[in-house]
Amino acid sequence: MITVSSPVSGRAVGLAQVPDPVFAGSMVGPGTAVDPVRAPAAALAPVDGTIVSLHPHAFVVLDDHGHGVLTHLGIDTVQLAGEGFRVLVAKGDTVVRGRPVIEWDPAAVAAAGRSPVCPVVALEATAEALTGLADGREVRAGDTLFHWTSTATESEGA
Predict the structure, then answer these.
(1) H or E stretch covering 21
(2) What's the angle, vertex CA 109, arms to CA 148 and CA 125, rounded to 5?
(3) Is the Cβ–Cβ distance between 116 and 110 less than 8 Å?
(4) The CATH number of the domain covering residues in 2-149
(5) Rounded CA separation 101/70 (Å)
(6) For the segment 82-93, what is each residue's pLDDT rounded down to a tens digit?
(7) What are the extents of the domains in the chain?
(8) In angstroms, rounded to a whole number, what is the distance separating the alpha carbons of residues 89 and 61?
(9) CA 96 to CA 63: how far, in whole Å?
(10) Which GO CC terms are listed, alphabetically (predicted)?
C-alpha cells in the first residue's frame, strides 16, 4: 500500500468538484484535490520516487513499484506559461515524500483568472484501488490524501 500525501495545505475536495471536466470525470485517473490556502508555498512530493514528468504547473512522481502520482497546480495554469511558478527539481531527480518540488502562489493564480485547485491523481489506477480519500476537510501539506493499494498481481511481483 502506498500513502499519497497532500502536496499543499488547504481544503480537500473530491475530483468531482474540480472545475475541469477531464479531472472531474476522473479521465486522467482517480484521486482527490486540494483547494489550497491562498499564500505563496512550495508544492511537495506526494510520494517517494522519481520525477518522470515536470512542468512549471504540474509534475508526476513514479514510485519504485511503478505507481505514478500526478500533481497539477491549478486548472488551466498551463496558459500562464510558467509565470508565477519556480521549479526546484529536475526531471529524473529522486525525491522523498515532502520534498519541495515547485514554488507557486495560489492567490496569483486566482488573480490571473484561473482556479488554484490542485488535483492529485493516481495514474493508471482504478477507483477501487484507492482508500481513505480525503474530502471536505482541512489538510496540511504532507497530510495523507489517500492510500493506493496494490493489486494482487503487483503484490505477487514485488
Answers:
(1) helix 21-24
(2) 15
(3) yes
(4) 2.70.70.10
(5) 12
(6) 989 999 999 999
(7) 2-149
(8) 12
(9) 10
(10) cytoplasm
